[in-house]
Design a protein that fits this description.
Elements: E1 2-6, E2 9-16, E3 21-25, H1 36-42, E4 47-51, H2 68-81, E5 88-92, H3 94-105, E6 110-114, H4 125-140, H5 150-157, H6 160-164, H7 167-177, E7 192-197, H8 205-214, E8 218-223, H9 230-233, H10 235-246
Parallel strand pairs: 3-4, 3-5, 5-6, 6-7, 7-8
Antiparallel strand pairs: 1-2, 2-4
């Protein structure tokens, strides 16, 4: 494991192999270990880099809440510092948010996005009622005699990712999930392979179909009866498809 110094933070990463650059970007609440099976499979044919985003794994916390833009600017600096050129990005969920923003404004060889987040979800009436109730409760719990219970109230209404995050990362999460990346999709010029779980309830399949339509050069593969971690649950299948997509890039500088 190697450390990269960024501002006041230490960023943990691994880099091995030779050839074209592949960079792995993990999801929210995860770390580089989730990408290790892909890293180990591809390191004999590519130069592969796997990192813990700031605030995850063994990397330091940001000093203030970050949105997708801050994470993207970090990634741009990280790539430049390590001498990575026109990377192939393989990203899951939150990592795909950063990959989308990166590819929309930087030279990128290819992308493989799986369970990619970044689109505003379609909300039903019960969601809007819950939000209205939360906003009312948030005002009430500012009263002095209710303030000690404010944290419990917020945890009750938040998602599992929100509840598990704390401090600067919770504020970052709120900032990130409210960003809509749909306007950036048409700016992506590299070939994109979308691999999705048919029953993904975190980033539903309609999001994949929308991305396939909006991105200039994109194709979609659906893993039947699988969910948000389809790439992890069916690693061998994922790697066979990825190998085909990246075949022409093997062993090249």
């Amino acid at each position: 494991m190697t450390t990269f110094n960024y501002a006041t933070m230490n960023i943990s990463y691994r880099q091995e192999g030779q050839g074209r650059d592949i960079l792995f970007l993990h999801g929210w609440g995860q770390n580089q270990e989730m990408m290790d099976p892909l890293f180990d499979h591809m390191k004999t044919r590519f130069r592969v880099t796997n990192l813990d985003f700031p605030g995850f794994g063994k990397s330091s916390l940001p000093s203030e809440p970050w949105g997708v833009d801050e994470y993207t600017r970090f990634l741009e600096d990280f790539i430049r510092e390590l001498g990575i050129v026109e990377p192939i990005l393989i990203a899951h969920s939150f990592g795909a948010r950063v990959a989308i923003r990166y590819a929309a404004r930087n030279d990128t060889r290819k992308m493989i996005l799986t369970g990619a987040a970044g689109l505003k979800p379609k909300r039903k009436l019960d969601y809007h009622l819950k939000v209205s109730t939360y906003k009312l409760a948030k005002q009430l719990f500012r009263l002095p005699f209710l303030k000690p219970y404010q944290e419990k109230m917020q945890k009750r209404f938040g998602s599992s990712d929100y509840r598990s995050a704390e401090g600067v990362m919770r504020a970052s999460f709120v900032k990130i999930v409210n960003e809509d990346l749909a306007p950036y999709l048409k700016s992506i010029r590299c070939p994109v392979l979308l691999i999705w779980g048919e029953k993904d309830d975190a980033t539903p399949l309609w999001m994949a179909k929308f991305m396939e339509k909006e991105i200039n050069d994109a194709g979609l593969v659906v893993f039947e009866n699988d969910g948000h971690f389809a790439y992890w649950n069916q690693t061998d299948r994922f790697l066979r498809i990825a190998d085909t997509f990246l075949k022409e890039d093997e062993g090249k500088l």
